Amino acid sequence: MIVGAGGGFDLLSGLPLAFALHERHKTIFLANLTFTAVTRIGAQPVAAGLFEIDAETSGPMSYFPEKHLAVWLRDHAYPDRIFLIRKGGPADIRAAYAWLARELRLDAIVLVDGGTDLLMTGDEAGLGTPVEDITSLLAAQALDLPVKLAVCVGFGVDAFHGVCHAHFLENVAALAKLGSYHGVFALLPGLSCTDAWLEAVDWVQQHTPGRESIVCASITDAARGEYGDHHSLARTRAKGAELFISPLMSMVWGFDLDAVANRVLYRDAIADATTPFEVAAAIEAFRDHTPLRPRRTIPA
User: Fold this and answer.
1) What DSSP string describes 242-263?
2) pTM score
3) CA–CA distance from 273 to each of 11, 141, 262, 269 (Å)?
4) InterPro entries in the record, alphabetically (predicted)?
5) Contact assessment for residue 53 and residue 62, using Cβ atoms and an 8 Å cutoff
6) Torsion of CA 278, 279, 281, 282, to 10 degrees
7) Helix (H) or strand (E) run with residue 36 in it
8) What are phi and psi of 235, to 5 degrees?
9) How many Cα atoms are found within 13 Å in the side-chain-facing hemisphere of 103?
10) Contact indicator for 126, 164 with CB cutoff of 8 Å
11) In whole angstroms, what is the distance from residue 163 CA to residue 169 CA?
C-alpha cells in the first residue's frame, strides 16, 4: 500500500512507485490522510474514520484531489480504488492503518511525504508541518508487516515552511549509520512510471484551480528540467515568493520506516493526544523545553 503521510496531495508523490510496481504485476492499494471534508463526500465509512472512494464518488469538486486522481486512474485503465483516512489523533489514525493492514492483507507499506519534514526529529531549527506526517508515521510503525518504508520527495520544497535542509541531510546521515537509509533515485521523464505520474499530477492540478499543490508543482517542474525561480502556478507568481527549483527536488529518498519513527524525540509526548490540535500543542510544548539545533546553511 502506498500512503500519503501528510494529507492533501502527498499521495501523488507516491504514484511513480505505484506505477512501477503495477508494471511488475503487484497488487497496489492507495490511501491518503485526507484534507477533504468527509461529511461532504458520497461514500460511507468502511471503518471508523476510514472511507473508500472511486471515480464515481461524489464530493466537493473544488478540493477533492483523491477523487480527481481516481478519475484519471479509471480513464487510464488503472484500479481507481482509494482509501481516505480522516484526520484525527494518533489512536484514530493507528486504528485506520490497522484495519487497512488486516482487511487488505498487506505485506508492505510505503509512507510518502511530499517534502522532507517527515525526517524531522523534533530538535531541528524548523519542523515544517509535522502534525499529520508524524501522526501517520507512528501509526504505520505500529503495524506488523514484513516491509515498511518511509519515502521523501521534494528536497528543498520545505524551506518555505522553515525546514533547515542541512538538518535533513544530518538526519539522513544518522539513518545511514544505522543501516536504515536505502538510497535515492531520480524521477526521469521517459520512464513510463514517471510519465504517467506527470500526466496524473497535471490532471489533478488542473481540476483543483486556485488550490493546486505548490509542492507537486515544484517536484514535477524539477523532473521536467526547470531550474531556479520558475513558476508554473499562478498562485506562486501572485505571492511574489522566489522559488528555487532544482534537480534535487525530483529525487526520491528511501528509509526504513521504523528507524525514522524511533528517532522522533516527542513520540511519547503525543501518544495520548486525541486531536491534531493536541498533537500540535504537545509538539510546541516539547520544543519549548528542548535545546534546538542552530540553523545552518549548506556550503555552496
Assistant:
1) PP-B-GGGGEEEEEEHHHHHHT
2) 0.96
3) 25, 17, 18, 8
4) DUF1152
5) no
6) 110
7) none
8) -70, -30
9) 12
10) yes
11) 11
What percent of the chain clears pLDDT 90, i.e. is strictly above it?
93
* pLDDT tens digits for range 1-52: 999 999 899 999 999 999 999 999 999 999 999 999 999 999 999 999 999 9
- Antiparallel, parallel or unpaired: β 2-4 and 108-114: parallel
Match 493492514 to its residue by C-alpha cell. 101
Residue owning grid cell 511488475: 24
Which tens digits make up the pLDDT trace of 115-168?
999 999 999 999 999 999 999 999 999 999 999 999 999 999 998 889 999 999
Looking up cell 521517459 gives 190
Specify whether the CB–CB gap between 106 and 3 falls below 8 A.
Answer: no
Place of cell 505571492: 239
- Largest Cα–Cα distance of the chain, in whole Å? 53
